[in-house]
Amino acid sequence: MNVCRIIQSRHVRIVAALTFVAVAAGCGNTPDKAKGWETLYEAYQDQQASRKSKGGSAGGEAAQKQAQSIQKAIASSKVPLKLAVLEETQRTAVLIRFAQNGPYTTWRTSSRQTVTTRNGIVTGTRGLGYDLMSSDLGTASSMITGRRSGQANRVYRHLSGENHEVPMLMRCSYSPSGSDTVQLPTGRSYSATKMSERCENDDGLKIRNTYWVTSGGAIPQSIQWISPEVGKVALQTLKE
Q: What is the model's pLDDT at position 32?
């Protein structure tokens, strides 16, 4: 399943063909100059041309060239990559693995926005405007990666108007909701179980996160809530 198609189900209308090649050409981020990013820009231009093309064969050839360019760019990367799509603003970005601190991985865009994950679950962000300062997972992580049904508490922390961290306790339930296939822009696919996480706090705020979890506990794709202002972010693995 394509990450862009998933997001279409709510407020955002992202054209499925605009996967991670669109990142290099705009969306608010300056493309990195590392080897491979120039290829992404060329792929974006090819994709734009194919959208305007009336001929089926010409469009098909452009799409094939685009796919090859994407695969080449990903293969040239020396570090793991993720694609991020913000639900509310439609902004997209490629994130590179920037730092590892024990079980926590920090992913960074070319404009220095970051997302921190633990076992694929978002525990913090920076540079988004209304960030998730930190999150305590408790037993939620084992529920999700183990693809088990059950309940757990999570704590989200956001900044108040006075720049103080405010904890928010969420009571969450977990359940598998069927099998699915995660299809990546590279052509690689993962067989996964969709895990649903439904949470609510004392003020009646309800959120729902979705994780695609492999048999080994990896999360190649997810849709996760960040904050009331930011909304959700969709994450997809591009290179491990």
A: 36
CATH of 60-239, one of 2.40.240.50, 3.10.150.10, 2.40.360.10, 3.40.50.1970: 2.40.360.10
The dihedral over CA atoms of 58, 60, 12, 169, expressed in degrees to the nearest 10, equals: -150
- Which residues, including other chains, have CB under 8 Å from residue 76's CB and lie 6 or more apart? 35, 36, 39
Half-sphere exposure of 90 (CA within 13 A, CB side): 14
What DSSP assignment string belongs to 56-83?
A: HHHHHHHHHHHHHHHHHHHHH-SS-EEE
Residue 26: left (phi > 0), alpha (psi -120 to 50), or beta? left
pTM: predicted TM-score of the whole model, two decimal places: 0.76
pLDDT digits (tens, 9 = 90+) for 178-205: 999 988 767 788 999 999 999 999 999 9
Burial class (CB within 10 angstroms; exposed 0-12, middle 13-18, buried 19+) of 109: buried
What pLDDT is attached to residue 67?
Answer: 62
Evaluate whether 196 touches 208 at the Cβ level (below 8 Å): yes
